[in-house]
## 1
Amino acid sequence: MSADWPRVPLGEVLTQREPDVEVAPDQQYSFAGVYCFGRGAFVGQTKVGREFAYPRLTRLRAGDFVYPKLMAWEGAYALVPRECDGLVVSTEYPVFAINTNRLIPTFLESYFKRASVWPEFGGVSTGTNVRRRRLNPVDFLSYRFPLPPLAEQGRIVARVEAVTGKITEARQLREETSPMAQVVRSSWLNQLFETARNSSWPEAALGNVADIRSGVTLGRTLLGNTISVPYLRVANVQDGRLDLATIKQVTVLPNEVEKWVLKPGDLLITEGGDWDKLGRGTVWRGEVPTCIHQNHIFRIRSSPEMFVPEFLSAIFASPYGKSYFQSASKQTTNLASINQRQLRAFRVFTPPLPEQQRIVAHLDALQAKTDVLRALQTETAAELDALLPAVLAKAFAGEL
């Protein structure tokens, strides 16, 4: 901290507001809250007066400073924004008016966004339960706060806001570009299979060119000797990938394993789920030995002389494939399902194997570029997250 800045008790620049709203049991009140970790205030829901455990509330004014007694040690401090003006908080949320003749409100806000400050208030919070300690207003107002001249405060605030604006802009650009690679892939597939409809590629019903089988039904009563084997649940089969973090076991008869065991090159498709994810699936590559699948997953096994499995998977993942399943499925609110008859009737394209291999190679190249982009975006996100704390640290060390 800069030695040139005097430290004054917060009580010199903040004045606690007294509760000014009498709670009426049948009156409705819109209340506000404060996020932890320096994320500011938020608009809460509406409560009826009898839902409050306090006889009096405090009405917020834009520009006030507020914190919850219980969560101060986790960085729950906020400058009241305009959208929270007029909302109420309980007496568990001390509210303070700021003396703007001595302190710029956003300077105070920036100070309390620093994670390095929060433990100082945890140290003066009281209570035997670590997670239930309260920061009393008296102790808060006694805290000695660095107070440079207003001109210096304004300069620092301007620098911090400029950096914050650039960080926000960079995050927006990152969010906008994040789905672009997937959109490019989807657009390419859509164009490919739309063209295929009018091309020389032959078509066939999936049931005529592949063996389709549902999996084991859970919870069956079995007689005789049984064995336990790993099986795939719907949660394991994602759109274009497998989530194998948790693999469960199921009990079956020994002679049933061969009927359901998965083999490398099998295509796995889910029977139902969210409407926009219907028909999601991926190629099985033997990731788990002697693994079977449950009855809400379809296993599609095609001849390697007819299909490259990844090409068949691309048809399912394309707008062409998703459009078929969404139109053919049985739908309820936000959910949909397909049956084996509908799956067997799905029309698939059967170009020569070299053509399928060329298409799969192109998709692999697109995926590789997507993976590189995502890795860069992850690195960028970490850098953006670290940038503001670094700027704030320099600001309050007098180094900006």
## 2
Amino acid sequence: MSDFNQRRTILKGSAGLAAAATIGTGSAIFAPFAHAQAMTFKPEKGAKLRVLRWSRFVQGDIDAYMANVKKFTELTGVEVRVDNEGWEDVRPKAAVAANTGAGPDIILSTNDDANLYPEKLLDVTDLAEYLGKKYGGWYPAVQQYLRPDGKKWLGLGLGAAGSMIVYRQSHVKAAGFDTFPKDTAGFLALHKALKEKGTPGGYALGNATGDSLWTNWLIWSHGGKLVDKSNKVVIDSPETLKALEYGKELYANFIPGTLSWLDPNNNKAFLDGQISVTNNGISIYYAAKNSTDPKVKEMVADINHASFPIGPAGVPTESHLFFNQMIFKYTKYPQAAKEFLRFMMEREQFDAWLIGAGGYIAQPLAAYESCSIWTSDPKNTPYRDSVKNMRPTGYEGKLGYASAGAGADFIIANMVAEAISGSKPPKEAMERAQKRAERYYKV
């Protein structure tokens, strides 16, 4: 078992700031952390902020987020402009901002994008450690993504959209399964039975930022990985080959067309009744509950969620879409930007946002496990521990420029798509992935 899987305890924020007091004019002001009292930053005079974030997949997310933004402006007088872009569009815009030194003050992006340009980001260690101490600690994967050197925080974790199994209970039962399978053998048997019943499954195999993450599970569940602990590329391996051979059997039972699926496609296919099982955030369930279409509304009672099954690796191998919050050094208003993130992460605002998003986002801080959204509907509960249990996309190596670049290049997803669809022999697909990854992980 890897160190990461053995280590399920929560990493606490450093206690080095525990006895800190006022730090200079206009800097952070906070009391001893032992009392978990408030930390504040004094916004610069005339401060205005621009925030770029990914577009909502559930309307309640953006509604609750903007309600908190309004509260912040009313309390501080700082005007905040929020722009929304698709996941695939945020990443290149963030890269342009980093390279040109101009753009949004704060960007909410995905996975380990912060490691693409760490020198361009404002150090938020004081704020991260304050929040970690106050709210039960940041989960391990958050620290791996945003504090890769174990010291400096490149940004704050926002949470993750859980990539869980979404399925129709009646269809699974009709296929001969009383409960959703918990191992890969049962998982394959279910998909074969679903296809025979005319109610197949389907999973994105295009360059989908969120929904292609199931391909990480496929490789990891069989013991494969892109790199080892020393960042040596090891994707061309017997374990990966076994995963791809299993994937070919699984793919034979998918609905046609998944090779071109991006993030919205499986949502539409599921709600249209074309597929009975897929991987997704809670947005499918959320959309069904809020639909005005009687046929879609009827699905609500039949939809349920489950974790991905355990494979030959013998341990959970969850991969979820992580969200970060980055402040760029070029901002004219660093204090205002820090105060904005602090305000948005404090319990009164963050709980309201989690609830508004309907469970679409899982928290990055342990204290928010107690948020009512996770128990108000038992179908939400599987998503609660997404960040707590996930492996970073750069598993099993150290995160940095290489992991961020390789992840953004969809190396694993492309290899899986090529091999399981039959467009390339598995060995050739592995070799190609190995060479592509080695361009990032240079020896």
## 3
Amino acid sequence: MNPLILSAALCLAASSAFAGKAFVSNERGNTITVIDTSTWEPIEEFSGGNRPRGITLSPDGKLLYVCASDDDAVRVFDTETYQELYTLPSGPDPELFVLDPAGSPLYIANEDDNLVTVTDTRTHKILAEVPVGVEPEGMAISPDEKWVVNTSETTNMAHFISTEDYQIKHNVLVDQRPRYAEYTADGKRLFVSAEIGGTVSVIDIAEDGTPTLTQKIGFEVPGVLPEWLQPVGVKITRDGSRIFVALGPANRVAVIDGASLEVVDYIMVGQRVWQMAFTPGEEFLVTTNGNSNDVTVIDVAREQAIRSVPVGQQPWGVAITPH
């Protein structure tokens, strides 16, 4: 057997030890594709509402939250039966959100209304509406749960919102069209991708939460036009040793060394790679590829793509069960 095929087969067989489900939101298909992560085969597809984009899971993995952008609602599904249970108020045009690790509240970016809506997932009530910059998108919550960060695409800022009073305490100017924000597990750094700026901003966080922009990471791929290098999704290993950045139409995921902050590799994936999610043990990283209508499975230890899985039309987000 070809050594590469054998290696991939062994990796896939090993995945049965942490079997779970990956849920992929298909923005244009208006569906959610379910993938068995022990076999990497699609096992179900169900309606996700109109224009499903942001997608996340409850801490116990029993509930799936979906930003149904054109429905102006967050739809909530049972992850076993795939039945819709109820909707949550989200504000207009919800795009991305982040869930407090305790399971509530949900912090939702409202792209058309320049707001972050704070929704209690238990009472189904809106707790606050926070005015932010123009075209809010990216959302992140600090590990200590004291700060929520929103990125505004047109204002080109990261807004730091206190979870105590839902007020903006800090604004950090980043590059053009910031798309995504991700904290390191220790909360000492925040990485913000800028799609048009073509960079990832590195923001150091002081003990009192004060953010300081310290550098910007750029990208260069031989044979790829600079304007195609459009950073979007960002995922960081728990130990902080690797930062993975989806580069949109460059069809690559950049690999950044967490210590030196140097780009060490680029992994070829599907077309227009957008968002990403780790399996629970970080053995694999799954990317959504909007123009090739598939997801790519990356072996994290080897930093190699090992499989492509077809999904619905224009996959946007991905969430993987914690078990």
## 4
Amino acid sequence: MSYDIEIGRSKRARRTYSLDDIALVPARRTRDPRDVSTDWQIDAFSFPAPVLGAPMDSVMSPASAIELGRLGGLGVLNLEGLWTRYEDPQPYLDEISLLPGDDMPRVTSRMQEIYAEPIKAELITERLAQIREAGVVVAGSLTPQRTQEFYRTVVNAGVDVFVIRGTTVSAEHVSQNQEPLDLKEFIYELDVPVIVGGAAGYTPALHLMRTGAAGVLVGFGGGATTTTRRALGIHAAMATTISDVAAARRDYLDESGGRYVHVIADGGLGVSGDMVKAMAMGADAVMIGAPLARATDAPGRGYHWGPEAHHHEFPRGARTQMSQVGSFETVLHGPSNHVDGTSNLVGALRRAMATTGYSTLKEFQRSEVVITNRL
């Protein structure tokens, strides 16, 4: 069956679906939500909640990474953010939250100035040590461009999970200006599990899996803070993309003789229903930013931004104001008094699994879904 449609006489395109285009279907059997397990394990590390905090300064500080770990998730610290540029980043976080929202060029310009401060290796060590001392799993993130420069510092600091995260990451990056990062060689030399991405389709994800990555981040151009779709015209519809990458995981499992690579949905997961549908489409876990930015104890103080917002050459993101709903604990586990899917995210996942009759996350990936929006 062909999924291509004609766009005029010279171009054919594949029809894809976003998470808004699909819905789950209740099954014949239902379960008590208390009998459902949301446990997730990657490498030697187990988590009661399949949630990674996105490495964004508005979401993850050392303190919030510790709190997320205490609540059963995995906080990933941005090792190129304010916490590794300034000994005391709080004045700059405060300033970003107070910049006038009606003057976006001014906001962007000032953020570019703030993030122009060099990254300091000793601060990377100090921040990761702070998380480790709290007794939770330690995870830090670098972009591919900075990985060669700082990865030894990160590993020596005792990181448990290393994340290489960019807007898009390929196993075959070509550059005439600098020596590209050889992911396969790099990952082979490390003694810690590596999560890498984003990947926006079957082939790039399969190539990343072949590098030895423990997990692949899935998504491109989504999220509350990015303007990538408007600025570059590039976007990946998440429902289709997750399904494609899940197919790559299945084929790589056969190809490698049983090596399982985790699929982690990253971007465009604004409410609990998005998280639920991402898991149903085949994700093992989700990396979220905006939902956690709504927490009253998030570093952004009601604002949310990513690295795209202060790119020194081509910013394609915005500082976005979020409605605060409660603490990290309220956002993840409730109790909730919101009816819009902005709090008790794990409770929503547990209830959706129970309603569709599945008791584990791997079983839940077999959920029946339907297309709800007609194109």
